[in-house]
Amino acid sequence: MRDTLGLEGIVGVLVVFAGIGILTLHDPVVAGALMVVLAGLALIAKGLADTVMRSFGLK
């Protein structure tokens, strides 16, 4: 996983999960909605990255 994300990416994922954990303690419904939004953003980013990779002929 470190090869894919790098150290900064792993720390970023941990910070996001820590923030959602804190939010879950305060309001679980809002935390669930935020998880859905983050999952959607991740899918959009993956789609954009795949498109860029294809346009450069790397995939």
UniProtKB/TrEMBL annotation:
Record InterPro entries: DUF7470
Regions that span the bilayer: 5-23, 29-49
A Pfam entry, by short name: DUF7470
The entry's keywords: Membrane, Transmembrane, Transmembrane helix
Domain of life, per lineage: Archaea
Name of the protein in question: Uncharacterized protein
Species this chain originates from: Halorubrum tebenquichense DSM 14210
